[in-house]
């Protein structure tokens, strides 16, 4: 439903039935789940590994985003301040990259199918709706494609999950670490200008100014 509300899927997907149930979204989710389950030779266990890799891969955006926001809006009220955030964020990004690498080639290569499908849908919507393209500001994600492609290459050459075992033990981990740190810097350089980011963040109600009765996450 969220994807539909963002304009990437037809609005009718997010419509509720007369019983107040998002039936179309649930049916679509069921169909996609069954297709994914049928596409794995080992069934449920392989699907779990695939899902785990996808979830961990999605976490790569967080460390870069938080460091970028610290630079773009340094005076934003923050109830929680992490010490040594730049170091911690880079460490987390490296760990995420290593977990994806350890997931293995056979599992992660299958992830290219939904990634390509999602990218195709996004491209189709952006071409049809220039307003959506401007609101998304996809230039900030120029690093994401090379990051995913680079991880696939490393997994293909690596020692896990059907990789070719071209990278010796230890060397592979150092290579993934160096690659992740380089991509982290690229991601930071791709961030929005500070003025544009500050304008967007200003539209969000600070936690310190949350209305009475509002629960903090």
Mean pLDDT: 82
Assess the beta-strand content as a share of residues: under 5%
What fraction, in percent, of the residue positions are helical? 55-70%
Give the oligomeric state. Answer: single chain
Distance between the termini: 22 Å
Count of DSSP strands: 0
- Sheet having the most strands: none
Low-confidence stretches: none
Order of secondary-structure elements: HHHHHHHHHHH
The rough form would be described as: globular
The whole-angstrom Rg is 20 Å
Number of helices: 11
InterPro entries: AA_Transporter_AGT
Characterization of the model:
It is a single chain. The chain is mainly α and 217 residues long. It has two domains: 38 residues, no CATH class; 153 residues, no CATH class. 63% of the residues lie in helices and 0% in strands. It has eleven helices and no strands. α3 runs antiparallel to α5 and α4 runs antiparallel to α5. The longest helix has 19 residues. The radius of gyration is 20 Å and the shape is globular. The mean pLDDT is 82.
Characteristic key phrases:
globular; mainly alpha; 11 helices; 217 residues
Task: Provide the fold topology.
Blueprint: H1 2-5, H2 23-38, H3 44-58, H4 61-72, H5 85-103, H6 105-110, H7 112-128, H8 130-136, H9 144-157, H10 171-189, H11 194-201
Helix pairs in contact: 3-5, 4-5, 4-10, 5-9, 5-10, 7-8, 9-10
InterPro entries: AA_Transporter_AGT
